[in-house]
Amino acid sequence: MASGPETAGGVEAVSPLDAAQDQLRVASDFLGLDSGVRALLAQPRREVTVSVPLRHDDGHVSVFVGHRVQHNLDRGPAKGGVRFSPHVNLDEVRALAMWMTWKCALLNIPYGGAKGGVAVDPRQLSLAELERVTRRYTSELVGVIGPERDIPAPDIGTDEQTMAWMVDTISVDRGYTVPGAVTGKPIAIGGSPGRSIATSLGVVQIALAALWDRGIEPRHASAAVQGFGKVGRGVALQLHEAGVKVVAVSDQYGAIHNAAGLDIEAVATHVDLTGSVVDYPGGDPVEGHELLELDVDLLAPCAIEGVLTGANAHQVSAKIIVEGANGPTTPEADTILQDRGITVVPDILANAGGVVVSYFEWVQGNQAYWWTEREVETRLRSHMIGGWELVRAEAQRTSRTFRETATSIAVARVAEAHRVRGLYP
Ligand code: NAD
Questions:
Q1: Are strands 320-322 and 46-55 parallel, antiparallel or unpaired?
Q2: Does the pLDDT at position 5 exceed 80?
Q3: Is the CB–ligand 1 distance for residue 147 below 6 Å?
Q4: Most distant pair of Cα atoms in the chain: their distance
Q5: H or E stretch including 191?
Q6: CA distance readout (Å), 165 to 151, 196, 284
Q7: Is-catalytic flag, 79?
Q8: Top-level class of domain 198-350
Q9: Nearest CA, atom 22, ligand 1
Q10: Pair type for strands 112-118 and 61-72
Q11: Whole-number average pLDDT of the chain
């Protein structure tokens, strides 16, 4: 079984909210922000917690808890994913919402940050039950979400079908179709070409740039990818296509390793057939924590928060870590990795491809004018490489880590938006 946030390295991990607050504190110190602005940025603007009752297929009723947190609205409507996982809790959602604010600001996307989730295990529900949970959760939030207010998207445990049910629920409530209400929708109802692979594409672009930056030619590089869902699977596939030798992949059920390189397309077929990477015949089983410590050039954590901690950062052997997941590295691990000369490309830069193409989807939906997949990809590449160049140059100039640099650029933009808007009343 792979390490989770509660068990990473056998010790209790730092909460994502503590990590997010710590990163904000470091950025605020660097920028010299006053205490009022710090307090504003440390607090979510708005939080909604709702009960999500579900009548199961056999007639019995369960009640789940759902949240939506809008961290900041200074630069535009809130934007952020919806997570269906038994681990969802308000502090996790608060942290993820704050990271969304920084991510949108860093990539200069005109949004604030939000996140939502329901504490439910989607694998325990039938499709009809999932639809009812999604619609009820959406219905409870209709007053605070929408194209000008807060635009949800898929995250852990949700997908384009979830988004289709959400947009339909909002549209039924309003009495007309509202395509800009969510992103990550199916193409048939206004999804953008290229959205489903956008996060992975961005992660891989940044990973390849980071490899070159350290003088490593991608076709001579090796990689390990944690998580084989919407992000991790695409990252593993695209790294493989770029000639990188992917030696290990994992999911919540276990990890597999092959020092000669895994055939990622064959792994993906195995996952489609069995639901997991476990028992893939072309690799040996390894423990989830071992994957994080493999001697590879590139490690891409693409699963959950808090997997690289003070307890295992000393054992990490990768030269570069590119964060496909949100919040996989705790502040303590960050310090250790920095001292050990390991490059960490932070989540708010590395996995921003998803929100960039979500923004494109929202723009296309609002204009009812659709771009080609090629246009989407070209614009995505230019945003990602622009973000990478900005952060790299500024990190070099100020001798700080990529995370400190990226967070402070983002926090400065949000603080400036707040300053010029002023405080009401
Ligand atoms: P997903 O539900 O599609 O996939 C999650 C994957 O992680 C699954 O393969 C699951 O088995 C695996 N996993 C869960 N716990 C694990 C553990 N302890 N060890 C190893 N693997 C584990 O979710 P996703 O959309 O791929 O999201 C993954 C991460 O990327 C999250 O942190 C999410 O917030 C972040 N993210 C997603 C997007 C997006 O567009 N989907 C965009 C930006 C960031």
A1: unpaired
A2: no
A3: no
A4: 64
A5: none
A6: 14, 17, 39
A7: no
A8: alpha beta
A9: 252
A10: antiparallel
A11: 96
User: Residue 396: pLDDT above 90?
Assistant: yes
Q: Which atom of ligand 1 is nearest to the CA of 231?
A: 26
Residues contacting 213, CB < 8 A, separation 6+: 343, 392
Q: What would the pLDDT profile of 175-228 be if each residue is shown by its tens digit?
A: 999 999 999 999 999 999 999 999 999 999 999 999 999 999 999 999 999 999
CATH value of 45-189 in 3.40.50.10860, 2.60.40.10, 3.20.20.70, 2.30.30.40: 3.40.50.10860
- Which alpha helices (H) appear in 216-352, and where do they start and end? 230-241, 264-274, 288-292, 331-339, 347-350
Strand boundaries in 119-269, DSSP class E = 150-154, 222-226, 245-251, 254-257
250 lines ligand 1 (CB under 6 A): yes
Backbone conformation region of residue 346, classed left if phi is above 0, alpha if psi is from -120 to 50, else beta: beta
Q: What is the pTM of this model?
A: 0.96
143: left (phi over 0), alpha (psi -120 to 50) or beta: alpha
Closest residue to atom 33 of ligand 1, CA basis: 325
Question: Where do the structural domains in the chain lie, given as residue ranges?
Answer: 45-189, 198-350
43-91, pLDDT tens digit by residue?
Answer: 999 999 999 999 999 999 999 999 999 999 999 999 999 999 999 999 9
CA of 258 to the centre of ligand 1 (A): 22
